[in-house]
Amino acid sequence: MYYFKKLVVCISCLMAVIVFTIPAVASSEIAIITYDPSGSLISKAEVFLGNELIGKTSPQGFLKFEVSPGEHKIVVSKSGYTTEVKSVRVQEGEFEQIRVEIDKEKSRVSDKGKEPSADKVREKKILFDESHEEWNTTDNSQILVNSLRSDGFLIEKIAEGKITNQKLDNYGIYVVGNAWAEFKTSELEVIENYFNEGGRILLIGLGWSWIDYNSGEKYPMNEVAKKFGASFNTDIIMDPTNHTTDKGSAIFHRPFISSHPITKGVDRIGARGNLIGSIDLSNGWEVLVKGDSDSYSGYHEAPYPQGSNPPVLAVRRDLDSGGKIVILTGDYFIDEHIKEFDNKVLTLNLFKWLAT
After folding, report:
1. Residue range 226-238: mean pLDDT, rounded
2. Rounded CA gap, 130 and 205, in Å?
3. Computed from CA positions of residues 157, 163, 168, 170, in that sequence, does the dihedral angle turn out positive or negative?
4. Whole-structure pTM value
5. Which residue from 118, 129, 209, 314 could staple onto 285, CB 3.0 to 4.6 Å apart?
6. Strand, helix or coil at 13?
7. Is 28-101 in CATH node 2.60.40.1120?
8. Per-domain residue ranges for the chain?
């Protein structure tokens, strides 16, 4: 019994030595303090580590968080303010405090030094309409949202209530992504007026999907698009030679992609398994992406026979007001598809063009 007790004690001592000689790993920390140019602290500013939202600054304008050792990109953003990007390198166990100054955004100013008629429009502030049962939302487009924020854009959404002049006046870009709920007449007038006063609009639609799942004849996206001389057809573009899962999931490629700031660096776009329709356009639109020589349309309607190059992306601008509008068919922007082909390049180019 004596030897047994002695062995237990020795093992206990050895275990104690092992526990207390393991070195602690020192974590690194970053503290963000947000100010305006006058020196006043700014609360509730969003802080991103790369593309990941870390949190918001406190009422005292302060946020502290742990990071791994190395170099990090910090993005600070708040609605109504400019976005600031900082780069910081921290060593293991180091504490880094960063003062970030963000200023109130200013309205756009024309080349002649005069404010446009819509003087509250913010060039890099984007409003996603999610109040009309949209399929393309900020929730299923997080890669896009985070990338745009990193590029200095401010992203907000409207989830309920009518679209009014007062709401749109605060945004430079208005996005409607395949809406399935009706727009009121007053809302359509507001959207049209917004464009005529220099606003920028992105319309995304898929006409055949509306017919497949809805009994109403008026596709809400077409009620908006027809205000600008465009509509989404109810066809599917077939391509026997350039497609993903089958010929109804077409890949669009050069030389059927026109040169434009939106298509810079874009050789191919497509969405695996996604059935893409075409658009119908009046005069004044510039087609940027269209089907190739052997593509054609079918399904509910067949407006484009083989060789007629069905259009899928077009732009229009009002030279007098500065208004811009993009119309696109397909789900290239959502998280499921944005990393395919050159979809992400196209997406970011598109928003940059709308903002300039």
Report:
1. 97
2. 14
3. negative
4. 0.69
5. 314
6. helix
7. yes
8. 28-101, 125-355
